[in-house]
Amino acid sequence: MCAAGIGSICASSHTHTTPFGSHEIRMLAGPAADLDSAPLFWLELIDHGTKTSVDSYCCHRLKDAVPVVCDFFAQMDDLDHAG
User: What is the pTM of this model?
Assistant: First the structure.
């Protein structure tokens, strides 16, 4: 599921949202001014039930996103089972 999630989330270079049940993972492109210091993009986990951000992460490299998205999927699973 993580690899499929990364593929669908990274399909855009601006802002992209991918819904998963009552949750959503957003990818927001960072500023392109200085790639060495600025984040490449932000990932954010949204809970539509509470209309809040559950978690977010600043990614400087694409490979940084893989474990974050896997963690977001685990968090979504935990939230679904808790509610």
Answer: 0.71
